[in-house]
Amino acid sequence: MSQFFWVPEVPQAAPVAVFKLTQDFNNDQFPNKVNLGVGAYRTDEGQPWVLPVVKKVEKIIVHDDRLNHEYLPILGLPEFRSSASKIVLGDNSPAIQENRVGAVQCLGGTGALKIGAEFLRRFYNGSNNTKTPIYVSAPTWENHNAVFSSAGFEDVRPYRYWDAEKRGLDLAGFLGDLESCPEHSVFVLHACAHNPTGTDPTQEQWKQIAEVMMRRKLFAFFDSAYQGFASGSLEKDAWAVRYFVSSGFEMFCAQSFSKNFGLYNERVGNLTVVARDADNLKRVLSQMEKIVRITWSNPPSQGARIVTITLTSPELFSEWQENVKTMANRVLLMRSQLKAKLQALGTPGTWDHITNQIGMFSFTGLNPKQVEYLVKEKHIYLMASSRINMCGLTTKNIDYVAESIHEAVTKVQ
Amino acid sequence: MSRPGSSPDEKGVSQNGDPGGQCPLFTNTLNAPVSPETRLLSAFARDTQARKVDLAGREYYSEEGKPFELRLVGKIKQQLSTDPTLHPEYPSSLGLREFTRKATEVALGKHSRAIVENQVLGVQTPGFTAAVRLGAELLRCWYDLSADWCGPVYLSSPCDDSLAGIFQAAGIQEIREYYYWDDKQRGICLERLLEDLESAPEHSVVVLSASAHYPTGADLSQSQWAVITRLITSRRLFPFLLLPTQALCCGDMERDAWPVQHCASLGMELLCAQSFSHCFGLYGEAVGHLLCVLKQNSVLLPVQSQADKIVRSLWARPSVGGAHVVTTVLSNSAHLVEWQGEVKHIVERCMLIRAILREKLRLLGTPGRWDHLTQQGGLFCCTGLNGEQVEFLSNRRRVYLLPGGCLNVSAINCRNLDYIAESIHLALTSSL
């Protein structure tokens, strides 16, 4: 009798590009290799950085005897949820004062997107939104697609965003897609420091985007993973989100504290919900609680505690802002140095976009052959899209990287 | 507070932030129906009587009535907080490798043939529910690929009320029950259980509790497992084992995991959802694990890649704090001994409470059978009280049980034991 297998012959799923890149980098023996792939902050020594304020707060937590060790409520730590929402919407947000802002503590930014997506699929526009179009920018963080499709949305589409030729925002295309899409479509918007292009709309451009979205009844789902990290200023990086709220949108904002707190491994996220009124908010949260209950049930406490204690103590809060500025400034420094070196080398092309772009990532604009050259010949690992993580640059490797880019651009067409 | 008029011509930009410009959203969202457990919790919270007793909580409560943190865990957390080698890296989506290795070993035993032959996948998850969810998503994935399986999933009657929702959220709609707890026998009725599983369609999934069944506390004996595994094999069913409180049942990691090891030693494919929250007192830290034992190691990498894909659209990666603590303890023999000592203390206390409660009920002359109290192990036990009697307890005596009449033994202590025993007695003897 042939043996019975319950588990069928399963095909191998495609590897995630960015992690494959890091794997290849790790296996590379070349002494001067550089990893410009994965999106995490690195110091000038190329090391991950535990924020000093986080170290401090971790000690406070570990020595606090009064902390209870119970399961967190399903929606998360209440003080975390409210202080996290305040950070993105502003302390004096009228929406908060009107009691129509609530939140769900989630497993990182991904978890926040997941809960928001699951809710929208069930309740957004009628009770079955599997056919409701979800628009994500072209390009976008590749996981956006996966989160929304696995939540049951069958129609995840790109909206025009990056103009490769002029290396900037394709505003006309973006607005065009906003005008022509089906009413009630959902748009995933990057609050700041767009991943992977580093190119954000200006305030004037955001105003235009908001106007069309309001008029055409489109849903704004913000993804805010870099608040503070992009410009060094929490307020500046939250401008778009706050503008939409003041314009009267009911909307979601998925927040991640992985990068601006360096808490990558503690999975600290928050789904902020701006509802029509307090009653609506209550109903939305009650349904989200049910969704959380069958996903992870109770979120982990450690990261949320660290963030809460930091945000709610004036002293620690200022210290955190300083730490965030440190990270943002190092990135800005690398940007200006890289551009200066390329200009000094006389590398063909314009390189203004490197300093015009913002946040961790930069779309260098190198073509696939040039990218391959960098990876294979120079052991400099970057995404096939030409995205580089500025944090991978250090004062020690920046010359090598600049020279290599110069080589790639001049030798490889 | 007035709202600006909302005509489609207006730009919808208002100065004071009133959401007047947009079409009303989510107005069809109803308040989610309240689960019986939630209703209970809110009733307990609203109860202003000083003498209220909550026996429906999920955690292990110490004699002082608080969720218990193990001394060793406190020590290790302090150590880890000053460890300069710990880096805030993104863990892999499948979790910390050392953690999954240890979690796999404690479930299967270090020298399990399945581990040796590379047929085992371990995935760290943010808690027990997440582990069940991931398992359900994998089953759904396999279901899509295989022409043979069409559900359903069988859950014990009773079981954790969130289980059905988890499988349905993963896309497996058909959920059925198999007979488990018998009120009259105050235990498992194997005959009827086997009947239900005999009539299950081939390829069904059966969710079985490895130890410390929630909420009844009634576990299958080894000989009962032998019968069940024979049935599972002959009917080509798929076992999904639950191990949420390993070591808290018998005080012994291995004994509590015996059913998992037994199935694996028979060469069965299985999933097992584990939690380390209870046995390490790490409730708020979401330390879970999904174990997957396969028959052919050729599908190991593909299944791993699927799990990776699923995780990335659920929570991307698990949180590491709690997992570090668990790994540190399980990897160090001195820590292990200390930890086992604390766990033994927890288990002995629960056993003592069960014995004393049984004795009190006997002395009061409470009708019914109470042997099962001391025959079962773990945190929970089923009193066999019916719905009316449970309500009597909450309304008239302020003693809150789970809706099905089950209670958390550790929430009983020297201060409330007499009152609880009296209350149970009254519930069974007053004419209702």
TrEMBL record, chain A:
All copies of domain Aminotransferase class I/classII large, residue ranges: 32-405
Keyword Amino-acid biosynthesis (UniProt): yes
A Pfam family annotated for this UniProt entry: Aminotran_1_2
Matches recorded under InterPro entries: Aminotransferase_I/II_large, Asp_trans, NHTrfase_class1_PyrdxlP-BS, PyrdxlP-dep_Trfase, PyrdxlP-dep_Trfase_major, PyrdxlP-dep_Trfase_small
Entries under PROSITE patterns matching the protein: AA_TRANSFER_CLASS_1
Gene Ontology biological process terms from the UniProt entry: aspartate biosynthetic process
GO molecular function term, any single one: pyridoxal phosphate binding
Keywords: Amino-acid biosynthesis, Aminotransferase, Cytoplasm, Pyridoxal phosphate, Transferase
GO cellular component terms, A-Z: cytosol
Keyword Transferase: yes
Location within or outside the cell: Cytoplasm
EC number: 2.6.1.1
Main EC class the enzyme belongs to: transferase
Cofactor(s) needed: pyridoxal 5'-phosphate
Enzymatic reactions: L-aspartate + 2-oxoglutarate = oxaloacetate + L-glutamate; (2S)-2-aminobutanoate + 2-oxoglutarate = 2-oxobutanoate + L-glutamate; 3-sulfino-L-alanine + 2-oxoglutarate = 3-sulfinopyruvate + L-glutamate; L-cysteine + 2-oxoglutarate = 2-oxo-3-sulfanylpropanoate + L-glutamate
Quaternary structure and partners: Homodimer.
Stated family: Belongs to the class-I pyridoxal-phosphate-dependent aminotransferase family.
Note: In eukaryotes there are cytoplasmic, mitochondrial and chloroplastic isozymes.
The protein, known as: Aspartate aminotransferase
Species this protein is from: Astatotilapia calliptera (Eastern happy)
Originating gene: GOT1
